[in-house]
Amino acid sequence: xxxxxxxxxxxxxxxxxxxxxxxxxxxxxxxxxxxxxxxxxxxxxxxxxxxxxxxxxxxxxxxxxxxxxxxxxxxxxxxxxxxxxxxxxxxxxxxxxxxxxxxxxxxxxxxxxxxxxxxxxxxxxxxxxxxxxxxxxxxxxxxxxxxxxxxxxxxxxxxxxxxxxxxxxxxxxxxxxxxxxxxxxxxxxxxxxxxxxxxxxxxxxxxxxxxxxxxxxxxxxxxxxxxxxxxxxxxxxxxxxxxxxxxxxxxxxxxxxxxxxxxxxxxxxxxxxxxxxxxxxxxxxxxxxxxxxxxxxxxxxxxxxxxxxxxxxxxxxxxxxxxxxxxxxxxxxxxxxxx
Length: 339
Fold this sequence. Notes:
The mean pLDDT is 90. The protein starts with 5 loop residues before the first helix and ends in a 9-residue tail after the last strand. 42% of the residues lie in helices and 16% in strands. Helix 2 (17-24) packs across helix 3 (32-45). It is of the alpha/beta class and 339 residues long.
């Protein structure tokens, strides 16, 4: 009879696998009633953690698991596509291959658990991280090797590599100040966005370095789309004429495209009447008219570091790695001297 899995415990207790992981990892976000129900299910089924993870250390598959969220079908992501390419190339340089799979957003754990218990991968790379990420909870609990591209809850002891969005956005603001701009606005993501929060912090730090005050109405938070970028800039244009920004830094290239389209429809000349900076350096950014000044994520460096750390982890290293890599400012025609 096969050993019970975390999915079996979740079914027995009537909860999600993420909740089971929270309980087993002693996280306080679960109610006492739920915690008791899960622990009783563990005892009834005789579930034992970590056995497979320990056995796996005796051999290597030379496969690294990399998941695509099922929602990615409708939302292509050029940044993750590019990262996946570099990840695959770097893995091949150490004699490994990348095994891709999908998982539902609402309950990703069973897919990871299946790959571990069937001994099909040596480690995982995780992207799209968020606070209290259940995948990170689960893999830490299983003591299974993984590295994330992105951060999660501060203070968690796991291996990650990330773009330094704070440093990047501060550099963007510094560049605009060097062009003579003082009324610099930002279009950012909602406060719930982890990476968006780092970029907003960099925007504010850049203003502070330049001795410019932070103005709450210069920060517009919105979702990730061209349309919301348009709407955000329309809000900035509703400010009195003497207070309207002469430059805008954007949390992503896609949002920047919306800002540029709205500015053009209002008769503004980009790079002259308004300077715009994006973030990501998506392939399309260089082909816009005018070409978009942006902050390029160093995806090749990030992928290389992720694979180097993974290789050490699989070999048994216990050294904790948490690394930030600054993006590169790429100057194009969407920015210019303040008029």
